[in-house]
Amino acid sequence: MVLDAANARLIAPATAGRSTAPVAITTTITTTTVTTALVRPSSSCNSRKQRPRTIQVTGKLDHLHATGPPTEVCMSSIAPAHSPAASALAAPSTVVHKFGGTSVADAERYRHVAGLLLARPESLQVSVVSAMKGVTDALIELAHLAAQGDAGWQEAWHALRARHRGAAVALLGEQVGDTVDWIDARFDQLAQVLAALAVIGELPREVLDRVQGLGEVFSAQLLGTHLRALGEDCAVLDARDVLVVGHGELGVDVDWDASAERLAAWRLQHPQPRVVATGFVARDRQDRVTTLGRNGSDYSGAIFAALFAADELHIWTDVDGVLSADPRLVPEAVQLHALSYDEACELAYFGAKVVHPQTMSPAIRLACRSSSAIPSSPAIRVRGSAPSARHVAR
User: Fewer CB atoms near the end CB (10 Å): N or C, the chain?
Assistant: First the structure.
């Protein structure tokens, strides 16, 4: 696969009332030659040697975690196509969707997410999910309590298991039996790990990574099982079976060759047109469970979009757009009408939640969409000039 860099700009929606409905971001890869399903991203947001051709963002933004150095990002509210024929002609073949914890906070939100996905026209659909809202923090707290010898971890463990069992029952109804058994088995394994931590009295990093990434595993299983219960041909992808990463001074370093090889083998066994994948988790080069760090689920969306050679990546989130300042500190902050790629990188570098630098690295086209029932935000675009460059995937 060969990609060139081009121009880009970002136009934010006009000022509107803030919303709590989740949103999404889309990425599309511009290709001239395709030989495998791998795009090699640049190592950081500041790299200008490898930049994608275009990025399109559609919808309202909660946290605009752009997933590829944008050349063009267009954001607009979700609207039905004017005709089925036009929709079919415009439909991309492969789209990766990323849903954050707020979007999958409970059974009702899973049900809503499934409705959004079923309404999409793509022929191959990959959905990367975070843990249910608050679950990752709860798992980290569980691990620390156990390592400190605090017997309170047992009560917290029971509460977390009950939350997932309750979500499964509410979501699946009479078809919940096998899923509850699956959840119970994983929580029993977790209890064994926590009991061991209580004995040794410390919390090794590898064990913490194993524990804190379980929320995504549970979440993907819930959404995937729900889609299958609706009659959809859907596979659940545990990223720990596919994604290989290293950790260096500049953060997570994806082993693209190893990851692409593992994904290809996985797809041979799981050719379904719908895939639900875990965000946040991976394995290192020593085959140990690891994570991509906080905000890692958004980065997972960008990585899987590259590995699947996706036409678009949609990151769903829940606010109206890109503001000129943090509204908690500057009440007079307004929504921006234009933002260059370099400005977006600076926002990310200086810590703005609206853009995360790692998520901007893979070369894909982005769209940001609102998962609210009636999204209202008009288009947002990101543009900025970039020198000609290539991304080659073998």
Answer: C
